[in-house]
Specification:
133 residues; mainly beta; 4-stranded antiparallel β-sheet; 1 helix; elongated
Length: 133
């Protein structure tokens, strides 16, 4: 599992993880998620859940929470809530482009990401560097 910033012009987040079962030494599939124009993200342990809304929406896979309490709170109560409708996530991200994603891992916890862009790619362990960058 690798977590690191992505992009230089706008805050982003990149997650990479082995996404196929296999034995040590076997070639395995690696999934790379690059979240762009990130407004907020959080990591939590299942034993100590954060109050990010929609607790029923979870699993050990990537999901999009379409009726997100967190997005609603960002728009209605966040720093830019006094901006005109459409700009309440900030002037650079139209609020109707915001998406809330959640991704859970059995032994690692879960991530909640609110962003406007998501790119998903797959590679194999033989195609990646042991030193992310």
């Amino acid at each position: 599992m690798t977590v690191q910033p992505a992009g230089e012009d706008w805050p982003g987040l990149r997650l990479e993880y082995v996404s196929s079962p296999g034995r040590p030494g076997d070639e395995q599939r690696v999934t790379r998620l690059v979240f762009g124009r990130v407004v907020q993200y959080a990591w939590g342990q299942f034993e100590f859940p954060l109050s990010l809304g929609n607790p029923q929406d979870s699993g050990f896979h990537l999901i999009e929470i379409t009726d997100s309490e967190l997005v609603r709170r960002i728009v209605e109560e966040g720093h830019f809530s006094h901006y005109p409708p459409g700009q309440r996530a900030g002037a650079s991200v139209p609020e109707d482009e915001l998406r809330h994603y959640r991704l859970g891992f059995d032994e690692h916890g879960y991530y909640d990401v609110v962003c406007a862009d998501l790119e998903i790619t797959h590679t194999t362990t033989s195609d990646i560097s042991p030193y992310p960058g």
